[in-house]
Amino acid sequence: MARGDLNDExxxxxxxxxxxxxxxxxxxxxxxxxxxxxxLHVLRxxxxxxxxxxxxxxxxxxxxxFRRWAEQGIWDALLxxxxxxxxxxxxxxxxxxxxxxxxxxxxxAKGGLIRRLLVDHAxxxxxxxxxxxxxxxxxxxxS
Length: 143
Prior knowledge:
The chain is an all-alpha fold. The chain has one domain (8-21, 28-89, 109-138). The protein has 6 helices and no strands. It has helices spanning 8-14, 32-45, 59-72, 74-85, 113-129, 135-142. The protein is globular and about 50 Å long.
């Protein structure tokens, strides 16, 4: 296990909430834990996906699974549940001003029609991708 990878206790909490991956006939699916550790490595280090360490598998496979989970609302559900249950560690949040940009709407400017349509469309997609059972519901049911 590399520095920053999930330990066994953390993995036991997270693993049941990740969707099972099914491989194709000639390509079996690979371990969710290894892929998740690869995703967390890229997000923690801030490197491009192509520069991800080889121990996590092929960068494109890890990226495709990351995007699929994002589209399915897995990340939002996990983070929301961890915050509600108090499982987030103090000091683990950071905002880097080199990557967070101020927007004109933050200063009071009005968004145009296209921006409003995009925001509304994104809200509808997010509602559709939110799982019926949240991670919190599943944790409480298993207690």
